[in-house]
Structure formats: C-alpha cells, structure tokens
C-alpha cells in the first residue's frame, strides 16, 4: 500500500480555509480529511456538507469525509452531492452499519468504517470484504490536538494481520488522532497506509517540510 498524508481541516484556519488548503496541496498532501460532527455523537460540532462543497471548488484532491454523527444515512447523499470521494461512518453510530456502507457504495464513492479506541475489530470484521478503508481512531473522537493512545498500534497491527490473511480484503488502513513526527512511524510499521494529521501541519511555517518528514518517516517504517 502507498503512504498517503491527509491533512485534517479541523486544524486549519477556518477564516482562511482556501489559503490553508492551497498551502497543504502545494506541500504534497495526497487527500484532505473533513470531520463532520453533530454535537450528539461526539461532544463537539464542526463542518456541514456546504464546507465539503466549498472544498471541492478549491482542490482536485480526494475529499475524505469522516461522519461523527447520529443517523449518518441522512447525510450520505448530501455529502456525496457536495463532492466527497470517500465517506467514513462510525460503527458505533448506527445499528445498521452494513446498510450505510451499501448506501455509500451505491452512490459511486468509496466507503469506509471507523472504530473508536474502545471498539473491538471483531465488531466490524464482517465488513472487511466490502469496504475500501477502515479508520482506526487513535484518540477519543471529537476534538483535535489530543494525545496519541499508544496501545492503538497493537490494534492497527492486528487489523493488518487480518487483512493479509484474507484474499478478498484489500482495504486501506487509516489512522486519525495525534499523528505527528513522533507517532507516524509506529503506525506505519504496524500497517497503516493513510495518515490524518492536523495540528502538526496547519498553523506551521514549514508545512512542506512537515509533510515531507511525515511521508519519509512512514515510508522508512514500512520497509
């Protein structure tokens, strides 16, 4: 799997979002991660489909939309219509996660499932043959800038092992939460492919150097 760096716009300057997106794009970002929070599933609120639509107007990079909301099915089509390339749904947010994944794929975009730090991989194992990505939260979801939960690397490693043992499981492993120059190598070595980074990238004078550093650390750790 190829290493992909995904800046999280949750840490961008919302008053200068286009500027920050362009800076990250020029720095070598592979895709952008957009968190949509409703204040119910997680104790915070963030972006709406209109922000996805605005992002689509200023970048051609893939838009990776992470739904931290209750009743995710109601938002899937509006977000696809806004220009999302991938939609990620929390396993904990719905009793019908398979239906949600099927709805996403029926609309022609990539589908992914998200697991919180305390959610066992066994609860989503049946989805492995039908998903494009699985996002392992390495912090408790809802806020940016949190400290990386170190034992999540064991979960990533178990997930990678499960992926390798099944011929029809070719999903990418994504990590989100506390990803920086001190944690990315551990995640990459464990088997992660997509790395969501927020506060480590945005608001920094050397964003190009930081993207390059993250990529180099991840590539080296995978070798």
TrEMBL record:
One of its GO terms (cellular component) is cytoplasm. Binds 1 divalent metal cation per subunit. The active site is at residues 35, 176. Keywords: Carbohydrate metabolism, Cobalt, Isomerase, Manganese, Metal-binding, Zinc. Its cofactor is Fe(2+); a divalent metal cation; Mn(2+); Zn(2+). InterPro entries: Aldolase_TIM (IPR013785), Ribul_P_3_epim (IPR026019), Ribul_P_3_epim-like (IPR000056), RibuloseP-bd_barrel (IPR011060). Substrate binds at residues 8, 66, 142-145, 176-178, 198-199. Pathway: Carbohydrate degradation. Its EC number is 5.1.3.1. One of its GO terms (biological process) is pentose-phosphate shunt. A divalent metal cation binds at residues 33, 35, 66, 176. CDD domains: RPE. It is an enzyme of class 5 (isomerase). It comes from the Bacteria. GO terms for molecular function: D-ribulose-phosphate 3-epimerase activity; metal ion binding. It holds the Pfam family Ribul_P_3_epim. It catalyses: D-ribulose 5-phosphate = D-xylulose 5-phosphate. Belongs to the ribulose-phosphate 3-epimerase family. Catalyzes the reversible epimerization of D-ribulose 5-phosphate to D-xylulose 5-phosphate. This is Ribulose-phosphate 3-epimerase. It comes from Companilactobacillus alimentarius DSM 20249. The gene is rpe.
